[in-house]
């Protein structure tokens, strides 16, 4: 009986531990789960490289100041993921108005960001939560 109890308890512990590994951590910000500023910087540097290699997406950035974009995107992402930064740049609508960004190109940019997150070793559970925070911005960026 004691042995059976021991086994059941052991099994329960394993289930609880596994659950802790796959369940999003409610009380820790996405920013901290990601590894803070250094990981965001790694993701954005990789993202900028991907943009630079993409024949269609690079066209949108012909006139852009890459360092300014880098700083702004890092700040914005940090704030979006509940990090300690405050994004003080222009709104998404102000920035992207007139670029005539298509849904197709928006989706390509998301793919480039996913590639960058994969390169930075971000788990898929975390990636999905980050993308869920960005998804509502679609209407502020596409064809405005
Ligand atoms: C969820 C998706 C997106 C987010 C969160 C986002 C966010 C931002 C932010 C924060 C900046 C400003 C950086 C700064 O302060 O200068 C920016 C600039 C820019 N974004 Fe986006 N963006 C998104 C999608 C896109 C897409 C799909 C395109 C084009 C296909 C695009 C093209 C640009 C360009 C060209 C700039 C630079 C503007 C300039 O400096 O002249 N963005 N974006």
Automatic annotation (TrEMBL):
Entry-linked Pfam families: Bac_globin
The keyword Ion transport is annotated on this UniProt entry: no
SUPFAM superfamilies (alphabetical): Globin-like (SSF46458)
Lineage: superkingdom: Bacteria
Keyword Repeat applies: no
Annotated keywords: Heme, Iron, Metal-binding, Transport
Signal sequence region: none
Record CDD domains: TrHb1_N
Annotated protein name in UniProt: Hemoglobin
Species per Swiss-Prot/TrEMBL record: Pseudoalteromonas aurantia 208
């Amino acid at each position: 009986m004691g042995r059976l109890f021991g086994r059941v308890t052991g099994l329960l512990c394993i289930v609880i531990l596994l659950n802790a590994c796959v369940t999003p951590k409610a009380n820790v910000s996405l920013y901290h789960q990601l590894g803070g500023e250094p990981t965001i910087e790694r993701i954005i540097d990789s993202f900028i490289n991907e943009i630079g290699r993409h024949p269609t997406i690079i066209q949108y950035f012909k006139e852009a100041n890459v360092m300014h974009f880098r700083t702004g995107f890092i700040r914005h992402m940090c704030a979006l993921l509940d990090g300690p930064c405050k994004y003080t740049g222009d709104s998404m609508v102000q920035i992207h108005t007139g670029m005539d960004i298509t849904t197709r190109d928006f989706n390509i940019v998301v793919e480039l960001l996913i590639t960058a997150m994969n390169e930075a070793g971000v788990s898929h559970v975390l990636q999905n939560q980050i993308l869920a925070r960005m998804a509502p911005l679609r209407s502020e960026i596409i064809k405005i």
